[in-house]
Design brief:
By secondary structure, the chain is of the alpha/beta class. The protein folds into 2 domains: 2-198, Formyl transferase, N-terminal domain (Rossmann fold, 3-Layer(aba) Sandwich), CATH 3.40.50; 203-295, Methionyl-tRNA Fmet Formyltransferase, Chain A, domain 2 (Roll). It has helices spanning 13-21, 47-54, 69-76, 94-97, 120-126, 162-183, 214-223, 291-295, and strands at 2-7, 25-30, 35-37, 42-44, 59-60, 82-86, 104-108, 116-117, 131-138, 148-155, 197-198, 230-234, 237-246, 261-262, 267-270, 275-282, 289-290. The chain has a 7-stranded mixed beta sheet. A hairpin with a 2-residue loop joins β12 and β13. α1 runs parallel beside α6 and α5 (120-126) packs antiparallel against α7 (214-223). The radius of gyration is 22 Å and the shape is elongated. The chain starts with a strand and ends in a 12-residue tail after the last helix.
Length: 307
């Protein structure tokens, strides 16, 4: 099948490799343009770009496609059966959506219509969903509104992290897109009920607000792992929290203000409801360490109230 693949981050790489291994004729791979990265701010290609080059595929990196008539013509000239899209990062205009004979199929990391938008994996963890999954949908002009071809779910627990769920859904998406192309399943309109949106994250989404319940902060730590990372300010540092858990053995913190470092084993912080035990942290420019190791040389004594 003549395919264009459109994706940028690590999530999309397994699908690209699966399509190539299955023998599909990948006419071009579209990715975000290389961006400055690292201390030297060198132009660095995205994960899909690197994977495509390793497979010997043509890579195209238009900075924008919405109103670029030449980009539309170049895309149409590929004479595609289908385009496969996975976290590409650019909005496709009607001219490109209509060009492939079977349309553009999107690998979306949620069980639509829940969590349309840019950060569905984070949102599922953050909001304590019991399950997540992947939906293969045919793209329309609306934001993740198109009809569904296939979907598969995976259960979530109170220990699930965005990092682990990301990898599981990336593998699931690669498997489902091969099925969608081979089986041509019937399309099903998305339900009108249950629509939710997962907006693009910023660094500010990782800030821990101790006035929130401990369960919500635990979910935020797991949802923001690895990016943008959960953190709190102290002594001029931004301490990153890599792992935590509700301190259910501590009981209620009583009259202690939210943000108070509580006495007892480990590093436990009073929250608006309950308390959160911080298990693994990282100071700027330092290696990650267990909370007990951090406490041996860092001022987080019981009774201290964090901002």
């Amino acid at each position: 099948m003549r395919i264009a693949f459109m994706g940028s981050p690590d999530f999309a790489v397994p699908a690209l490799r699966a399509l190539h291994a299955a023998g599909h004729d990948i006419r071009a791979v579209y990715t975000q343009p290389p961006k400055p990265a690292g201390r030297g701010q060198q132009e660095t290609p995205c994960p899909v770009h690197r994977a495509a080059l390793a497979l010997g595929l043509e890579v195209r990196t238009p900075a924008r496609v919405k109103r670029d008539a030449q980009a539309h013509a170049d895309f149409a000239a590929l004479d595609l059966d289908v385009a496969v899209v996975a976290a590409y990062g650019l909005i496709l205009p009607p001219a490109m959506l209509a060009a492939p004979r079977r349309g553009c199929l999107n690998i979306h990391a949620s069980l639509l219509p829940r969590w349309r938008g840019a950060a569905p994996i984070h949102a599922a963890i953050l909001h304590g969903d019991a399950q997540s999954g992947v939906t293969i949908m045919r793209m329309e002009e609306g934001l993740d509104t198109g009809p569904m071809l296939l979907a598969e779910s995976v259960g979530l627990t109170r220990q699930s992290t965005t990092a682990a769920l990301h990898d599981a859904l990336a593998a699931m998406g690669a498997r489902l897109i091969l099925r969608a192309l081979a089986e041509s399943p019937p399309e099903t309109p998305q339900p009108e009920a249950g629509v939710t949106y997962a907006p693009k994250l910023t660094k500010a989404d990782g800030l821990l607000d101790w006035a929130q319940p401990a369960a919500a902060l635990d979910a935020r730590v797991r949802a923001m792992n690895p990016w943008p990372g959960a953190y709190f300010p102290h002594a001029g540092d931004m301490l990153r929290v890599l792992a935590a858990e509700p301190a259910e053995d501590m009981g209620a913190p009583g009259a202690m203000p939210p943000g108070t470092v509580l006495p007892g084993a480990g590093l436990v912080i009073a929250c608006g409801e309950g308390a959160l035990r911080l298990l693994r942290l990282q100071r700027p420019g330092r290696a990650a360490m267990e909370a007990e190791a951090l406490l041996r040389g860092y001022p987080l004594a019981p009774g201290l109230i964090l901002a």
